[in-house]
Automatic annotation (TrEMBL):
Designated name of the protein: Xylulose kinase
SUPFAM superfamilies: Actin-like ATPase domain
Catalytic activity reported: D-xylulose + ATP = D-xylulose 5-phosphate + ADP + H(+)
Alphabetical list of Pfam families matching this protein: FGGY_C, FGGY_N
Enzymatic class: transferase
Species annotation: Ectopseudomonas khazarica
Chain's gene name: xylB
Amino acid sequence: MYLGIDCGTQGTKALVLDADSGQVLGAGSASHSLQSAANGRREQQPGQWLEAFEQATRQALAAAGISGEQILGIGVSGQQHGLVLLDEQGAVLRPAKLWCDTESTPENQRLLEHLGGAAGSLQRLGVAIAPGYTVSKLLWTREQHPELFARIAHILLPHDYLNHWLTGRACSEYGDASGSGYFDVRTRQWDGALLDFIDPSGRLQRALPQLLEPDQPVGPIRPQIAERLGLNPQAVVASGGGDNMMGAIGTGNIRPGAITMSLGTSGTLYAYSEQPMISPHAQVATFCSSSGGWLPLICTMNLTSATGLIQQLLELDIQAFGALVEQAPIGAEGLLMLPFFNGERVPALPNARASLLGMDSDNLTRANLCRAVVEGTSFGLRYGLDLLRASGLQSQTIRLIGGAAKSPVWRQVIADIMGTPLVCPRQTEAAALGAAIQAAWCLTPGADRQAQLAALCERCVQLDASTQTQPDPARTAQYEEVYRHYREQVSRLAEHNPA
Ligand SMILES: Nc1ncnc2c1ncn2[C@@H]1O[C@H](COP(=O)(O)OP(=O)(O)O)[C@@H](O)[C@H]1O
Ligand SMILES: O=C(CO)[C@@H](O)[C@H](O)COP(=O)(O)O
Protein backbone atom coordinates (compact mmCIF):
# COMPACT_ATOMS: atom_id res chain seq x y z
CA MET A 1 0.00 0.00 0.00
CA TYR A 2 1.17 3.52 -0.78
CA LEU A 3 0.10 6.85 0.66
CA GLY A 4 -0.34 9.75 -1.79
CA ILE A 5 -0.60 13.29 -0.43
CA ASP A 6 -1.45 16.47 -2.30
CA CYS A 7 -0.91 19.73 -0.46
CA GLY A 8 -3.01 22.07 -2.63
CA THR A 9 -3.90 25.68 -1.98
CA GLN A 10 -7.31 25.12 -0.43
CA GLY A 11 -6.52 21.88 1.31
CA THR A 12 -4.53 18.69 1.67
CA LYS A 13 -5.82 15.49 0.13
CA ALA A 14 -4.61 12.01 1.04
CA LEU A 15 -5.33 8.62 -0.49
CA VAL A 16 -4.29 5.02 0.00
CA LEU A 17 -3.37 3.12 -3.15
CA ASP A 18 -3.15 -0.64 -3.48
CA ALA A 19 -0.59 -0.68 -6.29
CA ASP A 20 -1.12 -4.40 -7.01
CA SER A 21 -4.81 -4.07 -7.80
CA GLY A 22 -4.56 -0.43 -8.90
CA GLN A 23 -7.45 0.49 -6.58
CA VAL A 24 -7.70 3.52 -4.33
CA LEU A 25 -8.91 2.10 -1.03
CA GLY A 26 -9.70 5.29 0.84
CA ALA A 27 -9.26 9.04 0.81
CA GLY A 28 -9.29 11.97 3.22
CA SER A 29 -8.92 15.73 3.16
CA ALA A 30 -8.47 18.77 5.39
CA SER A 31 -8.65 22.44 4.48
CA HIS A 32 -6.09 25.27 4.69
CA SER A 33 -6.68 28.95 5.22
CA LEU A 34 -5.09 31.77 3.24
CA GLN A 35 -3.61 35.03 4.51
CA SER A 36 -4.36 37.69 1.88
CA ALA A 37 -3.92 41.41 1.49
CA ALA A 38 -5.04 43.88 -1.15
CA ASN A 39 -1.42 44.38 -2.30
CA GLY A 40 -1.44 40.87 -3.78
CA ARG A 41 -0.07 39.05 -0.73
CA ARG A 42 -1.06 35.39 -0.59
CA GLU A 43 0.61 33.41 2.18
CA GLN A 44 0.10 30.29 4.26
CA GLN A 45 1.57 28.97 7.47
CA PRO A 46 3.49 25.77 6.64
CA GLY A 47 2.58 24.47 10.11
CA GLN A 48 -1.01 24.31 8.92
CA TRP A 49 0.00 21.98 6.10
CA LEU A 50 1.43 19.57 8.69
CA GLU A 51 -1.82 19.51 10.66
CA ALA A 52 -3.81 19.00 7.47
CA PHE A 53 -1.38 16.24 6.39
CA GLU A 54 -2.02 14.39 9.63
CA GLN A 55 -5.80 14.82 9.54
CA ALA A 56 -6.12 13.81 5.87
CA THR A 57 -3.82 10.80 6.36
CA ARG A 58 -5.73 9.51 9.36
CA GLN A 59 -9.01 9.90 7.45
CA ALA A 60 -7.64 8.09 4.41
CA LEU A 61 -6.35 5.18 6.50
CA ALA A 62 -9.69 4.90 8.29
CA ALA A 63 -11.64 5.04 5.02
CA ALA A 64 -9.36 2.37 3.52
CA GLY A 65 -9.85 0.22 6.61
CA ILE A 66 -6.14 -0.61 6.80
CA SER A 67 -3.44 -0.15 9.40
CA GLY A 68 -0.79 2.48 8.75
CA GLU A 69 1.73 -0.35 9.26
CA GLN A 70 0.83 -1.55 5.77
CA ILE A 71 2.10 1.63 4.10
CA LEU A 72 5.39 0.89 2.31
CA GLY A 73 5.92 4.24 0.64
CA ILE A 74 4.72 7.84 0.73
CA GLY A 75 4.61 10.25 -2.19
CA VAL A 76 4.02 13.95 -1.63
CA SER A 77 2.66 16.37 -4.21
CA GLY A 78 2.54 20.09 -3.46
CA GLN A 79 1.36 23.39 -4.88
CA GLN A 80 4.23 24.70 -7.01
CA HIS A 81 6.44 27.79 -6.60
CA GLY A 82 5.78 28.54 -2.89
CA LEU A 83 8.78 29.67 -0.83
CA VAL A 84 9.47 27.99 2.50
CA LEU A 85 12.53 29.33 4.32
CA LEU A 86 14.14 27.43 7.18
CA ASP A 87 16.87 28.46 9.58
CA GLU A 88 19.84 26.34 10.65
CA GLN A 89 17.67 24.46 13.19
CA GLY A 90 15.04 23.66 10.57
CA ALA A 91 12.52 26.19 11.93
CA VAL A 92 10.24 28.03 9.48
CA LEU A 93 11.37 31.67 9.22
CA ARG A 94 8.13 33.24 7.99
CA PRO A 95 4.83 32.27 6.28
CA ALA A 96 5.24 30.74 2.85
CA LYS A 97 4.61 33.10 -0.04
CA LEU A 98 2.50 31.12 -2.50
CA TRP A 99 2.31 30.59 -6.28
CA CYS A 100 -0.61 33.05 -6.41
CA ASP A 101 1.16 35.84 -4.51
CA THR A 102 1.54 38.91 -6.72
CA GLU A 103 3.06 41.16 -4.06
CA SER A 104 6.53 40.44 -5.44
CA THR A 105 5.58 41.28 -9.06
CA PRO A 106 7.93 44.34 -9.08
CA GLU A 107 10.82 42.13 -7.92
CA ASN A 108 10.01 39.65 -10.70
CA GLN A 109 10.09 42.50 -13.20
CA ARG A 110 13.56 43.58 -11.98
CA LEU A 111 14.88 40.04 -12.23
CA LEU A 112 13.35 39.66 -15.69
CA GLU A 113 15.13 42.84 -16.81
CA HIS A 114 18.39 41.48 -15.41
CA LEU A 115 17.89 38.34 -17.53
CA GLY A 116 17.25 40.40 -20.67
CA GLY A 117 13.45 40.27 -20.67
CA ALA A 118 11.30 37.27 -21.57
CA ALA A 119 13.60 36.34 -24.49
CA GLY A 120 16.71 36.43 -22.31
CA SER A 121 15.01 34.42 -19.58
CA LEU A 122 13.82 31.80 -22.10
CA GLN A 123 17.31 31.53 -23.50
CA ARG A 124 19.01 31.20 -20.14
CA LEU A 125 16.51 29.16 -18.11
CA GLY A 126 14.12 27.72 -20.71
CA VAL A 127 11.25 29.55 -18.97
CA ALA A 128 10.31 33.21 -18.80
CA ILE A 129 10.11 33.92 -15.07
CA ALA A 130 6.61 35.08 -14.15
CA PRO A 131 5.02 36.66 -11.08
CA GLY A 132 4.39 33.88 -8.61
CA TYR A 133 7.62 31.98 -9.34
CA THR A 134 9.85 31.41 -6.33
CA VAL A 135 12.81 33.56 -7.38
CA SER A 136 11.11 36.95 -6.96
CA LYS A 137 10.04 35.94 -3.45
CA LEU A 138 13.72 35.60 -2.50
CA LEU A 139 14.54 39.12 -3.69
CA TRP A 140 11.41 40.38 -1.91
CA THR A 141 12.49 38.70 1.34
CA ARG A 142 15.98 40.18 1.10
CA GLU A 143 14.54 43.65 0.82
CA GLN A 144 11.54 43.42 3.14
CA HIS A 145 12.96 41.14 5.84
CA PRO A 146 16.77 41.44 5.78
CA GLU A 147 17.05 40.09 9.33
CA LEU A 148 15.24 36.88 8.34
CA PHE A 149 17.07 36.71 5.03
CA ALA A 150 20.37 36.62 6.93
CA ARG A 151 19.19 33.47 8.74
CA ILE A 152 18.22 31.43 5.65
CA ALA A 153 19.74 27.94 5.80
CA HIS A 154 17.31 26.05 3.51
CA ILE A 155 15.22 27.21 0.55
CA LEU A 156 12.42 24.75 -0.03
CA LEU A 157 9.31 24.44 -2.16
CA PRO A 158 6.10 23.31 -0.40
CA HIS A 159 6.51 19.61 -1.24
CA ASP A 160 10.24 19.76 -0.40
CA TYR A 161 9.28 21.17 2.98
CA LEU A 162 6.84 18.32 3.65
CA ASN A 163 9.50 15.80 2.62
CA HIS A 164 11.96 17.55 4.95
CA TRP A 165 9.48 17.26 7.81
CA LEU A 166 8.91 13.59 7.01
CA THR A 167 12.58 12.60 6.64
CA GLY A 168 14.84 15.37 7.96
CA ARG A 169 16.46 15.69 4.49
CA ALA A 170 16.41 18.77 2.25
CA CYS A 171 15.95 17.53 -1.32
CA SER A 172 14.12 18.57 -4.44
CA GLU A 173 13.39 17.05 -7.83
CA TYR A 174 13.43 18.42 -11.36
CA GLY A 175 9.73 19.02 -11.92
CA ASP A 176 9.06 21.24 -8.93
CA ALA A 177 12.55 22.79 -9.16
CA SER A 178 11.79 23.93 -12.71
CA GLY A 179 9.09 26.28 -11.39
CA SER A 180 11.54 28.04 -9.07
CA GLY A 181 12.93 30.45 -11.67
CA TYR A 182 16.52 29.66 -10.58
CA PHE A 183 16.73 26.38 -12.48
CA ASP A 184 17.72 25.65 -16.07
CA VAL A 185 15.05 23.30 -17.45
CA ARG A 186 17.26 22.16 -20.34
CA THR A 187 20.25 21.02 -18.28
CA ARG A 188 18.23 20.26 -15.12
CA GLN A 189 20.62 22.23 -12.92
CA TRP A 190 20.15 25.08 -10.47
CA ASP A 191 21.13 28.49 -11.83
CA GLY A 192 23.36 29.52 -8.94
CA ALA A 193 24.50 32.69 -10.70
CA LEU A 194 20.98 34.08 -10.58
CA LEU A 195 20.87 33.47 -6.83
CA ASP A 196 24.26 35.20 -6.51
CA PHE A 197 22.75 38.19 -8.27
CA ILE A 198 20.20 38.37 -5.42
CA ASP A 199 22.86 37.81 -2.76
CA PRO A 200 26.52 37.67 -3.84
CA SER A 201 27.58 36.12 -0.52
CA GLY A 202 26.72 32.65 -1.86
CA ARG A 203 24.28 32.11 1.05
CA LEU A 204 21.40 31.22 -1.27
CA GLN A 205 23.38 28.70 -3.29
CA ARG A 206 24.45 26.99 -0.07
CA ALA A 207 20.78 26.80 1.01
CA LEU A 208 19.67 24.90 -2.11
CA PRO A 209 18.37 21.37 -1.64
CA GLN A 210 20.00 18.39 -3.34
CA LEU A 211 18.33 17.44 -6.64
CA LEU A 212 16.93 13.92 -7.00
CA GLU A 213 15.82 11.82 -9.95
CA PRO A 214 12.02 11.40 -9.92
CA ASP A 215 12.23 7.70 -8.99
CA GLN A 216 14.79 8.23 -6.23
CA PRO A 217 13.73 8.11 -2.58
CA VAL A 218 14.35 11.00 -0.21
CA GLY A 219 14.76 8.48 2.59
CA PRO A 220 12.95 6.67 5.40
CA ILE A 221 10.29 8.43 7.45
CA ARG A 222 11.51 9.72 10.84
CA PRO A 223 10.27 7.52 13.72
CA GLN A 224 8.54 10.36 15.58
CA ILE A 225 6.64 11.42 12.43
CA ALA A 226 5.65 7.82 11.66
CA GLU A 227 4.22 7.65 15.17
CA ARG A 228 2.40 10.98 14.85
CA LEU A 229 0.80 9.90 11.56
CA GLY A 230 0.16 6.32 12.61
CA LEU A 231 2.35 4.99 9.77
CA ASN A 232 4.83 2.16 9.31
CA PRO A 233 8.19 3.37 10.69
CA GLN A 234 9.90 1.54 7.79
CA ALA A 235 7.97 3.51 5.16
CA VAL A 236 10.08 5.23 2.49
CA VAL A 237 9.41 8.77 1.25
CA ALA A 238 9.65 9.14 -2.54
CA SER A 239 10.93 12.29 -4.24
CA GLY A 240 7.34 13.53 -4.81
CA GLY A 241 6.89 16.67 -6.90
CA GLY A 242 4.85 19.69 -7.90
CA ASP A 243 1.10 19.12 -8.05
CA ASN A 244 0.92 19.48 -11.82
CA MET A 245 3.78 17.03 -12.34
CA MET A 246 2.08 14.56 -10.02
CA GLY A 247 -1.24 15.27 -11.78
CA ALA A 248 0.44 14.27 -15.04
CA ILE A 249 1.42 10.89 -13.58
CA GLY A 250 -2.01 10.50 -11.97
CA THR A 251 -3.72 10.97 -15.33
CA GLY A 252 -1.29 8.71 -17.21
CA ASN A 253 0.07 11.77 -19.05
CA ILE A 254 3.58 10.33 -19.35
CA ARG A 255 3.71 10.08 -23.15
CA PRO A 256 3.05 12.68 -25.85
CA GLY A 257 -0.57 12.95 -26.99
CA ALA A 258 -2.72 13.65 -23.95
CA ILE A 259 -3.59 16.94 -22.33
CA THR A 260 -4.44 17.22 -18.65
CA MET A 261 -6.49 20.14 -17.40
CA SER A 262 -6.87 20.86 -13.70
CA LEU A 263 -9.72 22.92 -12.26
CA GLY A 264 -8.26 23.59 -8.80
CA THR A 265 -7.63 26.91 -7.10
CA SER A 266 -5.59 27.58 -10.24
CA GLY A 267 -6.49 26.41 -13.71
CA THR A 268 -3.73 24.46 -15.41
CA LEU A 269 -3.22 22.72 -18.70
CA TYR A 270 -0.23 20.58 -19.60
CA ALA A 271 1.09 17.90 -21.91
CA TYR A 272 4.09 15.58 -21.76
CA SER A 273 6.94 16.17 -24.16
CA GLU A 274 10.06 14.07 -24.72
CA GLN A 275 12.14 17.14 -25.57
CA PRO A 276 12.52 20.50 -23.83
CA MET A 277 10.23 22.00 -26.44
CA ILE A 278 10.69 25.66 -25.48
CA SER A 279 7.73 27.58 -26.84
CA PRO A 280 8.37 31.04 -28.27
CA HIS A 281 5.27 32.07 -26.29
CA ALA A 282 6.63 33.24 -22.97
CA GLN A 283 3.40 32.29 -21.17
CA VAL A 284 3.93 28.58 -21.93
CA ALA A 285 6.13 27.33 -19.10
CA THR A 286 8.28 24.41 -20.23
CA PHE A 287 8.70 22.79 -16.83
CA CYS A 288 10.36 19.39 -16.38
CA SER A 289 8.03 16.48 -15.80
CA SER A 290 8.56 14.16 -12.86
CA SER A 291 8.60 11.13 -15.12
CA GLY A 292 11.68 11.80 -17.23
CA GLY A 293 10.67 14.37 -19.86
CA TRP A 294 9.17 17.86 -19.91
CA LEU A 295 5.74 19.27 -19.19
CA PRO A 296 4.87 22.46 -21.11
CA LEU A 297 2.25 24.10 -18.91
CA ILE A 298 -0.18 26.98 -18.79
CA CYS A 299 -1.42 28.27 -15.45
CA THR A 300 -4.20 30.74 -14.77
CA MET A 301 -4.23 32.13 -11.24
CA ASN A 302 -7.98 32.76 -11.14
CA LEU A 303 -10.10 29.66 -11.37
CA THR A 304 -12.04 28.34 -8.38
CA SER A 305 -10.30 31.12 -6.41
CA ALA A 306 -12.52 33.46 -8.48
CA THR A 307 -15.68 31.35 -8.68
CA GLY A 308 -15.41 30.82 -4.92
CA LEU A 309 -15.57 34.58 -4.36
CA ILE A 310 -18.88 34.89 -6.23
CA GLN A 311 -20.19 31.77 -4.55
CA GLN A 312 -19.41 33.30 -1.14
CA LEU A 313 -20.78 36.70 -2.10
CA LEU A 314 -24.11 35.15 -3.06
CA GLU A 315 -23.98 32.77 -0.08
CA LEU A 316 -24.37 29.69 -2.26
CA ASP A 317 -23.23 26.14 -1.70
CA ILE A 318 -21.46 24.40 -4.56
CA GLN A 319 -24.64 22.71 -5.87
CA ALA A 320 -26.71 25.91 -5.83
CA PHE A 321 -23.87 27.72 -7.59
CA GLY A 322 -23.80 25.06 -10.33
CA ALA A 323 -27.59 25.20 -10.72
CA LEU A 324 -27.46 28.98 -11.26
CA VAL A 325 -24.69 28.64 -13.85
CA GLU A 326 -26.88 26.18 -15.71
CA GLN A 327 -29.92 28.48 -15.54
CA ALA A 328 -28.21 31.35 -17.36
CA PRO A 329 -27.69 31.29 -21.13
CA ILE A 330 -24.29 31.23 -22.84
CA GLY A 331 -22.82 34.72 -22.69
CA ALA A 332 -24.80 35.53 -19.51
CA GLU A 333 -27.03 37.95 -21.47
CA GLY A 334 -24.08 40.22 -22.15
CA LEU A 335 -22.45 40.10 -18.73
CA LEU A 336 -18.72 39.53 -19.09
CA MET A 337 -16.34 39.00 -16.23
CA LEU A 338 -12.60 39.56 -16.52
CA PRO A 339 -11.83 37.56 -13.37
CA PHE A 340 -8.33 38.84 -12.57
CA PHE A 341 -9.00 39.39 -8.88
CA ASN A 342 -5.34 39.22 -7.88
CA GLY A 343 -3.69 39.89 -11.23
CA GLU A 344 -3.09 37.06 -13.67
CA ARG A 345 -0.28 34.96 -15.10
CA VAL A 346 -2.03 33.82 -18.33
CA PRO A 347 -3.05 36.13 -19.92
CA ALA A 348 -0.08 38.07 -18.51
CA LEU A 349 -1.79 40.75 -16.41
CA PRO A 350 -0.04 40.66 -13.03
CA ASN A 351 -1.13 44.21 -12.17
CA ALA A 352 -4.75 43.95 -13.30
CA ARG A 353 -7.82 43.60 -11.12
CA ALA A 354 -11.19 42.00 -11.99
CA SER A 355 -14.02 43.78 -13.76
CA LEU A 356 -17.62 43.08 -14.67
CA LEU A 357 -18.63 44.48 -18.02
CA GLY A 358 -21.86 44.91 -19.95
CA MET A 359 -24.22 45.32 -17.00
CA ASP A 360 -27.67 46.68 -17.75
CA SER A 361 -30.84 46.93 -15.72
CA ASP A 362 -32.04 43.50 -16.87
CA ASN A 363 -29.01 41.25 -16.98
CA LEU A 364 -27.54 41.73 -13.49
CA THR A 365 -28.96 38.52 -12.06
CA ARG A 366 -27.46 35.99 -9.70
CA ALA A 367 -27.53 33.35 -12.44
CA ASN A 368 -25.75 35.58 -14.96
CA LEU A 369 -23.14 36.54 -12.40
CA CYS A 370 -22.40 32.87 -11.66
CA ARG A 371 -22.20 32.04 -15.34
CA ALA A 372 -20.03 35.08 -16.10
CA VAL A 373 -17.39 34.05 -13.58
CA VAL A 374 -17.32 30.45 -14.85
CA GLU A 375 -17.07 31.62 -18.46
CA GLY A 376 -14.46 34.29 -17.69
CA THR A 377 -12.21 31.85 -15.84
CA SER A 378 -12.65 29.17 -18.54
CA PHE A 379 -11.73 31.65 -21.28
CA GLY A 380 -8.34 32.07 -19.62
CA LEU A 381 -7.80 28.33 -20.06
CA ARG A 382 -9.06 28.50 -23.64
CA TYR A 383 -6.46 31.18 -24.35
CA GLY A 384 -3.86 28.90 -22.77
CA LEU A 385 -5.01 25.95 -24.87
CA ASP A 386 -4.59 28.04 -28.01
CA LEU A 387 -1.04 28.88 -26.91
CA LEU A 388 -0.23 25.21 -26.28
CA ARG A 389 -1.67 24.28 -29.67
CA ALA A 390 0.31 27.08 -31.33
CA SER A 391 3.41 25.58 -29.70
CA GLY A 392 2.76 22.32 -31.53
CA LEU A 393 1.15 20.21 -28.80
CA GLN A 394 -1.59 17.82 -29.76
CA SER A 395 -4.91 17.88 -28.00
CA GLN A 396 -7.46 15.33 -29.15
CA THR A 397 -8.94 14.86 -25.69
CA ILE A 398 -8.60 16.46 -22.31
CA ARG A 399 -8.26 14.56 -19.05
CA LEU A 400 -10.01 16.77 -16.55
CA ILE A 401 -9.07 16.78 -12.86
CA GLY A 402 -9.20 19.00 -9.76
CA GLY A 403 -12.11 19.91 -7.49
CA ALA A 404 -14.42 21.49 -10.07
CA ALA A 405 -14.02 18.53 -12.48
CA LYS A 406 -16.59 16.79 -10.25
CA SER A 407 -19.26 19.14 -11.60
CA PRO A 408 -21.13 18.12 -14.79
CA VAL A 409 -21.92 21.79 -15.41
CA TRP A 410 -18.23 22.73 -15.43
CA ARG A 411 -17.44 19.72 -17.63
CA GLN A 412 -19.89 20.82 -20.32
CA VAL A 413 -18.76 24.46 -20.23
CA ILE A 414 -15.12 23.37 -20.59
CA ALA A 415 -15.80 20.88 -23.43
CA ASP A 416 -17.82 23.51 -25.33
CA ILE A 417 -15.41 26.41 -24.83
CA MET A 418 -12.37 24.28 -25.73
CA GLY A 419 -14.25 22.59 -28.59
CA THR A 420 -12.60 19.38 -27.36
CA PRO A 421 -13.99 16.19 -25.79
CA LEU A 422 -13.00 15.48 -22.22
CA VAL A 423 -13.09 12.73 -19.66
CA CYS A 424 -12.22 12.56 -15.97
CA PRO A 425 -10.16 9.83 -14.42
CA ARG A 426 -12.01 7.90 -11.73
CA GLN A 427 -9.72 9.56 -9.25
CA THR A 428 -10.10 13.32 -9.81
CA GLU A 429 -7.58 13.90 -6.99
CA ALA A 430 -5.04 12.95 -9.61
CA ALA A 431 -2.09 14.73 -7.99
CA ALA A 432 -2.44 12.62 -4.84
CA LEU A 433 -2.83 9.50 -6.99
CA GLY A 434 0.23 10.46 -9.06
CA ALA A 435 2.24 10.89 -5.88
CA ALA A 436 1.18 7.44 -4.64
CA ILE A 437 2.06 5.92 -8.03
CA GLN A 438 5.45 7.62 -7.91
CA ALA A 439 6.07 6.14 -4.45
CA ALA A 440 5.25 2.68 -5.82
CA TRP A 441 7.57 3.34 -8.78
CA CYS A 442 10.36 4.41 -6.47
CA LEU A 443 10.11 1.12 -4.54
CA THR A 444 9.73 -1.16 -7.58
CA PRO A 445 13.14 -2.49 -8.60
CA GLY A 446 14.00 -3.15 -12.25
CA ALA A 447 16.07 -1.77 -15.09
CA ASP A 448 13.48 -0.30 -17.45
CA ARG A 449 12.26 2.57 -15.31
CA GLN A 450 9.95 4.11 -17.92
CA ALA A 451 8.27 0.77 -18.68
CA GLN A 452 7.69 0.26 -14.98
CA LEU A 453 6.04 3.64 -14.56
CA ALA A 454 3.91 3.01 -17.64
CA ALA A 455 2.76 -0.34 -16.22
CA LEU A 456 1.84 1.30 -12.90
CA CYS A 457 -0.13 4.06 -14.66
CA GLU A 458 -1.85 1.43 -16.82
CA ARG A 459 -2.99 -0.38 -13.69
CA CYS A 460 -3.78 2.55 -11.39
CA VAL A 461 -5.22 5.25 -13.68
CA GLN A 462 -8.73 4.43 -14.77
CA LEU A 463 -11.00 6.69 -16.74
CA ASP A 464 -14.57 7.29 -15.65
CA ALA A 465 -16.67 6.75 -18.78
CA SER A 466 -19.69 8.38 -17.13
CA THR A 467 -17.88 11.74 -17.23
CA GLN A 468 -17.13 11.64 -20.94
CA THR A 469 -18.32 14.97 -22.35
CA GLN A 470 -18.53 15.95 -26.02
CA PRO A 471 -18.50 19.55 -27.20
CA ASP A 472 -21.74 20.63 -28.85
CA PRO A 473 -20.86 22.40 -32.14
CA ALA A 474 -23.73 24.91 -31.83
CA ARG A 475 -22.74 25.87 -28.31
CA THR A 476 -19.04 25.99 -29.26
CA ALA A 477 -19.93 28.48 -32.00
CA GLN A 478 -21.89 30.61 -29.54
CA TYR A 479 -19.01 30.62 -27.07
CA GLU A 480 -16.64 31.57 -29.87
CA GLU A 481 -18.46 34.91 -30.20
CA VAL A 482 -18.29 35.58 -26.48
CA TYR A 483 -14.64 34.52 -26.41
CA ARG A 484 -13.82 37.05 -29.14
CA HIS A 485 -15.43 39.74 -27.03
CA TYR A 486 -13.40 38.56 -24.00
CA ARG A 487 -10.14 38.75 -25.99
CA GLU A 488 -10.94 42.30 -27.12
CA GLN A 489 -11.62 43.39 -23.56
CA VAL A 490 -8.46 41.67 -22.28
CA SER A 491 -6.42 43.57 -24.89
CA ARG A 492 -7.92 46.84 -23.69
CA LEU A 493 -7.20 45.97 -20.09
CA ALA A 494 -3.61 45.08 -21.00
CA GLU A 495 -3.10 48.55 -22.48
CA HIS A 496 -3.94 50.11 -19.12
CA ASN A 497 -2.13 47.49 -17.00
CA PRO A 498 1.24 46.77 -18.61
CA ALA A 499 3.01 43.74 -17.14
N1 LIG B 1 -18.57 18.78 -6.48
C1 LIG B 1 -18.02 19.93 -6.87
N2 LIG B 1 -18.60 20.68 -7.83
C2 LIG B 1 -18.04 21.83 -8.25
N3 LIG B 1 -16.89 22.33 -7.75
C3 LIG B 1 -16.29 21.63 -6.78
C4 LIG B 1 -16.80 20.40 -6.29
N4 LIG B 1 -15.96 19.96 -5.33
C5 LIG B 1 -14.98 20.89 -5.24
N5 LIG B 1 -15.17 21.88 -6.10
C6 LIG B 1 -14.34 23.10 -6.31
O1 LIG B 1 -12.99 22.74 -6.25
C7 LIG B 1 -12.27 23.64 -5.41
C8 LIG B 1 -11.09 22.95 -4.80
O2 LIG B 1 -10.33 22.35 -5.82
P1 LIG B 1 -8.99 21.57 -5.49
O3 LIG B 1 -8.54 20.93 -6.77
O4 LIG B 1 -9.18 20.68 -4.32
O5 LIG B 1 -8.05 22.79 -5.11
P2 LIG B 1 -6.56 22.87 -4.57
O6 LIG B 1 -5.85 21.61 -4.99
O7 LIG B 1 -6.01 24.07 -5.25
O8 LIG B 1 -6.62 23.02 -3.08
C9 LIG B 1 -13.32 24.10 -4.42
O9 LIG B 1 -13.02 25.37 -3.91
C10 LIG B 1 -14.58 24.14 -5.25
O10 LIG B 1 -14.71 25.39 -5.90
O1 LIG C 1 1.34 27.79 -9.99
C1 LIG C 1 0.81 26.77 -10.40
C2 LIG C 1 1.34 26.07 -11.59
O2 LIG C 1 2.43 26.70 -12.21
C3 LIG C 1 -0.40 26.23 -9.68
O3 LIG C 1 -1.03 25.25 -10.44
C4 LIG C 1 -0.01 25.73 -8.31
O4 LIG C 1 0.75 24.55 -8.46
C5 LIG C 1 -1.21 25.57 -7.40
O5 LIG C 1 -2.06 24.55 -7.73
P1 LIG C 1 -3.52 24.25 -7.15
O6 LIG C 1 -3.55 24.58 -5.71
O7 LIG C 1 -4.49 25.05 -7.96
O8 LIG C 1 -3.69 22.77 -7.40
